[in-house]
Amino acid sequence: MGVDQIMVTYYRTNLQPFSDELTSEYPKRAAAIKAAVNAHISLAEQGYFLSIPVFIAQADGLLAEITGVESPMTKAAKVFREKYADDPELLDLLYPFLELQSSRFMMSTKARQAAAQSTKKSFTALNRHQVMHGERSDYGTEINSLKAFSFLVFAGLHLPAVLTP
Q1: Which end of the chain is less congested by CB atoms within 10 angstroms, N or C?
Q2: Is the distance from CB of 77 to CB of 103 less than 8 angstroms?
Q3: pTM above 0.85, yes or no
Q4: Cα gap 103→16, rounded to integer Å
Q5: DSSP line for the chain
Q6: For residue 122, which phi and psi values (nearest 5 degrees)?
Q7: Angle at which helices 142-153 and 44-67 cross, to 10°
Q8: CB contact burial 54-76 (16+ within 10 A = b; e otherwise)
Q9: How many alpha carbons lie under 13 Å from residue 155 in its C-beta half-sphere?
Q10: DSSP for 71-82?
Q11: Burial 125-159 (b: 16+ CB within 10 A, else e)
Q12: Tens place of pLDDT for every residue, the chain, 165 residues?
C-alpha cells in the first residue's frame, strides 16, 4: 500500500470526526467547512471541484489567523525557524509546514515548468496556485480533495496543538 492510499484510507475514515472538530473549534468557518465536506461526500467527482478550493482557502485563512504572520504560506516558515531555533523537538513537529514552501503544492509557475520540461511529463500534482487562480480545471479527484482536507486539518488542528504551550 502506497503513501497516497494510506492517506486516503485514513481521511476517508476520519473525514467526519475531523470536520466536526474543525467546525466546533472555528464556528465562524463552520458553514464553509461543512459545505465543502458535504460537496466532497455527496457530489463525488463534481463535489471535489467544489471542496478543494474551499479546503485550501480555509486552511490559508487559519494559517494567517493562527500564526499571526501576514502571507503565512510564504513567510511563516522563516519566522518559525528563527523563533523556535532553540527547540528542535517543536521544529520537528512543524516540519511539514516548514517544508511546505518547497513542496509541489506550493511550487511556482517557473518551477512547475522546469519540472515538466526535465521529466518530459506535464505537471499534475495538486498545486495551490493553479487551483486558486483557475490555471487548471482537472484537479477534481478524491485524493486531491483529501489532500486539501488534510492541509486544513494540519492548519486548524495540528498547528495550534503544537504551538500552544
Answers
A1: C
A2: no
A3: yes
A4: 27
A5: --HHHHHHHHHHHHHHHHHHHHHHH-GGGHHHHHHHHHHHHHSHHHHHHHHHHHHHHHHHHHHHHHH--SSHHHHHHHHHHHHTTT-HHHHHHTHHHHTGGGSGGG--HHHHHHHHHHHTS---S--HHHHHTTS-S----HHHHHHHHHHHHIIIIIHHHHH--
A6: -70, 150
A7: 20
A8: bbbbbbbbbbbebbebeebbeeb
A9: 25
A10: SHHHHHHHHHHH
A11: ebbbebbeeeeeeebbebebbbbbbbbbbbbbbeb
A12: 688 889 889 999 999 999 999 999 999 999 999 999 999 999 878 899 999 999 999 999 999 998 888 888 878 888 888 888 999 998 998 888 888 878 888 888 888 888 888 888 888 888 888 898 988 889 999 999 999 999 999 999 999 998 886
The three three-digit cell numbers of residue 31, written as one number: 458553514
The letter for the amino acid at 119 is T
> Residue holding cell 467544489?
50
